[in-house]
Amino acid sequence: MAKAKKVKKATKAKKIKPAAKPKKAAKAVKLKKGKKHSGPAVAYLALGSNVGDREEYIEQACFLLEKNPNIQVIKRSTNIETEAEGGGEQPNYMNAAIAIRTKLSPHKLLEVCQEIETVLGREREVEWGPRTMDIDILMYNNEIISDEKLQIPHPLMHERMFVLKPLREIAASLFHPVLEKTVESIYEERKVEGGEKYDDELPGFKEIRTGGYDDYERW
What we know:
two-stranded antiparallel ribbon, 9 strands, 23% helix, globular
């Protein structure tokens, strides 16, 4: 009679560890007031010239800005001609607006703009006087800055049609963080306030201003 084979004892099943409880989702971190956003910023600049070859000076300003490894020009308006404001009789201005992407801080960007103005022959001897090149920072992301050296948004941009018209061309939906309005709506309101009908196709587009001139960033 054949011997019965020994049956191996069944191995004990390994204890399965209970699945780990899912971790709670991290709470959104609130940015502290004044904390800067990481990564490149988008800024908007106004360019103006009323000495010599005005259009060439604007070309040179754009070239020198983009020559900086921390600046990239991403949009540019057409050039518009406007009458000079303040400083007595002087030649008409050629104005433009550009959008840039930059890794520079607002204050460092200001330094670069002023260096380019100097390279292009800007002189600061006469208030509201003629100039080869003027570069103003209009907006920098949605930041609000006010100190001795810099004010952002530019405190007069909403009053100046020669700034609003080219800016509207490249960024009509840009939101002003102080006025809480778009560039398009500010532009339309300014047209009504000025009491003038403007033909956007005219190269001699100008604004009829009344009242005094502010001391900030004289064009």
